[in-house]
């Protein structure tokens, strides 16, 4: 795998060194690999106007952190602490997305030719290497295999998202707004995972729709305005949907208004349409 990041501006190189230093100071890891747009050299830092609204977007750093569970236990509190420390670093201007994988399943994914890992192996840049783990070259799927896998993933996850949207509508019509908010969250989560699986072959164990949104936008920037983050009301409503995964079920004080849910449902219908369009275009490209 490559190790050179000289194609990146000096400020980006400094940020990546800071991220590596922060992670390795907290956890004994095997590899840290930069992948995605910053590894390929096609990252985006842009703004554009649509109607009266200005949208801004900048690519995140995509980082694979490889661990050895024999040496380092994978605990949610530990990695939550790592993510918090990285995200709160005052010198970082670019958001890092961390994917944590144990080295043994990772080797298996490479041997089986999962195309997310194949692309990562080909395009990734090693930022840190303990010298204890060597990744085996992956088996590459041919175009036919990739297309079949993407089509299968699309059909399963897109239909699953539709089912949750139907459940949202039923709960909404009954006036069960907290339950409706949960079902709508699950629909969005599955629509986003549909895109990620079709484009990358990878589905994170992730329920945070803000993080999923960031990942999806790197696949297709047309998703940026689906949930606008321009006004306070935009942000408040998306935050309501984000919190619904936990709070709609376990917090007695959780409230979702009819107006908020109607607005969010319209955005989800737009999301559904774009997911179908984007994924079908991607599948045809294989």
From TrEMBL:
**What are the residue boundaries of the HEPN domain, all occurrences included?**
158-278
Pfam families listed in its UniProt record? HEPN
Q: Which domain of life is it from?
A: Bacteria
Q: What is this protein called?
A: HEPN domain-containing protein
Q: In which organism is this protein found?
A: Alkalilimnicola ehrlichii
Q: What is the lineage of its organism?
A: Bacteria, Pseudomonadati, Pseudomonadota, Gammaproteobacteria, Chromatiales
């Amino acid at each position: 795998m490559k190790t050179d990041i000289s194609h990146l501006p000096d400020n980006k190189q400094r940020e990546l060194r800071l991220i590596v230093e922060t992670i390795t100071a907290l956890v004994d890891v095997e590899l840290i690999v930069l992948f995605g747009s910053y590894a390929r050299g096609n990252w985006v830092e842009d703004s554009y106007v649509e109607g009266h609204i200005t949208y801004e977007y900048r690519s995140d750093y995509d980082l694979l952190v490889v661990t050895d569970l024999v040496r380092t236990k994978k605990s949610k509190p530990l990695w939550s602490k790592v993510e918090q420390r990285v995200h709160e670093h005052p010198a970082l201007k670019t958001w890092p997305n961390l994917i944590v994988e144990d080295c043994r399943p990772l080797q298996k994914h490479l041997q089986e030719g999962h195309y997310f890992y194949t692309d990562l192996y080909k395009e990734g840049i090693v930022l840190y290497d303990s010298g204890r783990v060597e990744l085996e070259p992956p088996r590459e799927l041919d175009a036919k295999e990739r297309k079949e896998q993407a089509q299968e993933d699309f059909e399963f996850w897109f239909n699953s998202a539709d089912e949750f949207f139907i459940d949202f509508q039923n709960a909404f019509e009954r006036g069960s707004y907290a339950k409706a908010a949960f079902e709508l969250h699950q629909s969005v989560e599955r629509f986003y995972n549909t895109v990620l699986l079709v484009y990358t072959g990878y589905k994170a164990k992730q329920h945070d729709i803000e993080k999923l949104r960031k990942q999806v936008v790197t696949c297709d920037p047309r998703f940026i305005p689906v949930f606008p983050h321009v006004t306070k009301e935009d942000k408040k409503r998306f935050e309501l949907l984000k919190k619904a995964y936990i709070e709609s079920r376990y917090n007695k004080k959780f409230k979702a208004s009819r107006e908020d849910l109607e607005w969010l449902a319209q955005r989800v219908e737009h999301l559904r349409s774009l997911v179908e369009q984007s994924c079908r275009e991607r599948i045809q490209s294989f």
